[in-house]
Structures are given as C-alpha cells and as structure tokens.
Specification:
16 helices, 5-stranded mixed beta sheet, 394 residues, 2 domains, Trna Endonuclease, Chain: A, domain 1, elongated, alpha/beta
C-alpha cells in the first residue's frame, strides 16, 4: 500500500504548523525568523516584547528571545540588552521553582541569537544553562536539539556533538554555527519526515519540520532518501526525445504578430544548450564547458558536468555518413582522459543522430555501456518533422 505523496505530506505539515492566535510570542517570532520576515512583519512582535519587558510583572525570557529572533540581521531593539542583563541576574535550575528558560529550546535559541550579536563571548551563566539543559533534562527531542544548536552558536564549552541534533533540525540549521549536513543526515531527515505525526500544541515542531521538508526537497529532487544519482540523470535524458512532441517547428505563423519559427539543431552546441535547459533546474552545480588540467598536449573540456555526483554528460553530434564506430572511439578517448581526474566517476554519452539511423542505435548503446565509467547512453534521432539534411561540421 502506497503512502501519502509529497504534496499530501507537505500539506499536512502546513496545516499542523498554523500557530493559534494565542501562541507564545517567541513561537511567533521563530516562525517569522524561519520565513525571513520583512521589517513590517516584526513590528507587532517587537512592540509587544518591549512592552512586556518594561513591566516587571509580565516580563519573561520569552520576550527576550522574541527580540533575539527579531534582531537577527536587523537593527537591535533598544530593550534587548536590558532584557539580557536581567536574565543574567537571575539564578536557574531551582528545585523549588518551575523551570522556564531551562526547558524551552525555542527561547534558548532566540537568546543565543541575541548574544551572538551583542556579546564577544558566551556568558558563563548561559553557556552552563545550554549544556546542562541539553545533557541532563528529559526534553522533547526538538527542544533538546535547539539547545544544542544554541550551544554551537555560542561555541559553549561542553557543547554536545552535532550528531545529537535531530536530523530534520540539522538540515534546517545546516551552515549555521558551523553545523554541517552530510548526505546521511538528509537521508535520515527524509525518513523521519515521511512518518511525521502532527500533535496538538506542536505547531513550532511542525513549522521546523516544514522548513526541513522544503530544504530536503530542494536538495534532492524528487525528494527521497539521498541525492539524485547518475542513474537518475540517465532516466531524465532518456525522456528528452519526448520533449520534441512540442518542439517549435512551424510551417506557418501561429499568431498574427509573429512569423513562422523553427528551432533548428545544427551542431553539438545546440544539443548541449538543450540538455543544459533540462538539467539546470535539477542540479544547482551543473557546469558547462569546464576545462580539466592539461594531460600532456591535451586540454580536456567537459561538455556538461555535475560535481555533486561526479558525473559528466558528453554530447556528440552524429552526422550523415559518419560511422557509428567513430562515436565509440571518441567516447573511449574521453573516458581515458576523464579517468585521470578522481572527481569524475560516471560518464553519460548523449548522441544526437542527425541521420536518424535508428536501426543501429541498440548496437551502439550496447557498445558504449561496456566502456569504463559509462553508466548509460542516450541516442536521440533527428525528429521526423525536421528535415534530415546534411550540414557541415561547425
């Protein structure tokens, strides 16, 4: 039985992350911070937090945390320093007093953001609070992770290892406070997100998981365990031939204000441009015309390359009268050159057959995939609606 699709998973997180009107102020501030809220969106949060801090009977660590979120990357609220000074004068972990900041990961993160802007080093009282809470209290995994993130942000002595952060939150805070996100973490985050359950009162947790969902989806399209692989590139390129169903090749103008247009493909550079348009939305690190270090008198140049998965897409233009064997010889030469650079582990030849010799394609593919590094080969014949005419090499 199949589980919910991506759209259903995301819609569930969106619904679960809607904060109620009476949500704590620092929870609303975290939501704004995750969404990179505009200056106008912070006005109500800042004015409410400042008003609370000015009233000794209402002030709390939550108000300071809300200002911490609001101040990150923006002008500091004047009352923020006063709030931090007030927190520093209090004592924590009293056995006769209910815990507040000590057990509130969202508040701890907001205050860590404030200190990261205002203090040259983490105050001892806050450093101790972060590490003690993360290490000794029976916290919700999300709260515990937020304490650890805060400790890393402050570079607090005794901070727990990054591996102790829940994978979804490690994705959210990747690149933040020196937190890294290896591929195993993306995989673990996706596994957790696929089975995420929304609980009443867990709007903040859902908001953080929604952010993680979007980041995992951006990193791995389609979102799944791990990144796209060379085999996925093969599958995408195998579908290029279907794209020509809507390829512009007009015999007469389609509108009264335009002329008849034909998107002619005359050389391998045109094919390379087509493949770049197909692959660029999938791979943010897609490169074209990358030159490798010289190998003797040769200066190898990659047509298209995807460093994140060590893959090269080599484009060939097969003209009428040129032997199929020539394609195998050229790709074999490319393999020998590319193998000298350990970054490249997979090669995918993409051949535009301008003579549409489809009867020979299967044999050519079977020969190409026997070459070292070649994980798949694609041959696209010139579509029938295009006139198959010979052209001089460009």
């Amino acid at each position: 039985m199949m589980g919910p699709g991506l759209a259903e998973l995301r819609a569930g997180l969106v619904a679960a992350s809607i904060l109620p009107p009476d949500a704590p102020l620092h929870h609303r501030a975290l939501a704004q911070w995750l969404a990179s809220g505009t200056a106008d969106s912070w006005e109500t949060i800042e004015s409410t937090a400042t008003g609370n801090l000015d009233n000794a009977g209402r002030r709390s660590a939550r108000d300071v945390a809300a200002l911490g979120f609001a101040s990150h990357g923006r002008n500091l609220a004047p009352s923020l320093q006063q709030g931090l000074d007030w927190l520093g004068q209090r004592s924590w972990f009293h056995s006769q007093r209910p815990m507040t900041l000590e057990a509130d990961g969202v508040a701890a993160l907001g205050i860590a953001l404030a200190f990261s802007r205002l203090a040259p080093r983490c105050p001892d009282w806050f450093s101790h609070l972060l590490t003690r809470s993360a290490s000794t209290l029976p916290l919700d995994p999300i709260d515990r992770s937020l304490f650890i993130v805060g400790a890393h942000l402050m570079d607090a002595p005794g901070k727990l290892d990054q591996s102790e952060i829940e994978p979804e939150l490690r994705v959210v805070f990747g690149g933040f406070a020196g937190i890294t996100v290896p591929e195993t973490t993306y995989a673990a985050a996706w596994s957790a997100l696929r089975t995420a359950v929304a609980n009443t009162g867990g709007e903040v947790q859902a908001r953080l998981k929604l952010k993680a969902f979007d980041l995992v989806a951006e990193h791995s399209i389609p979102a799944r365990t791990g990144k796209l692989e060379p085999s996925d590139v093969v599958r995408v390129l195998e579908g290029v031939s279907r794209s020509f169903r809507r390829w512009t090749w007009e015999t007469k103008p389609r509108t009264t204000t335009s002329s008849a247009v034909r998107w002619e493909i005359q050389n391998e550079y045109h094919v390379q441009n087509l493949l770049y348009a197909v692959l660029a939305p999938l791979f943010c690190d897609l490169n074209d015309e990358e030159t490798l270090p010289p190998i003797g008198q040769k200066n190898p140049r990659l047509d298209l390359s995807i460093p994140s998965i060590g893959t090269v897409v080599e484009v060939k233009f097969l003209r009428p009268g040129v032997a199929m064997q020539k394609m195998i010889d050229e790709i074999a030469t490319d393999v020998g050159l590319y193998k000298t650079d350990p970054r490249w582990t997979s090669l995918i030849p993409f051949i535009w057959d301008d003579s549409a010799r489809t009867e020979d394609h299967a044999k050519l593919v079977s020969g190409l995939v026997k070459l070292d590094m070649v994980v798949g080969a694609i041959i696209v014949p010139r579509p029938g609606k295009m006139l198959a005419v010979s052209r001089d090499a460009v």
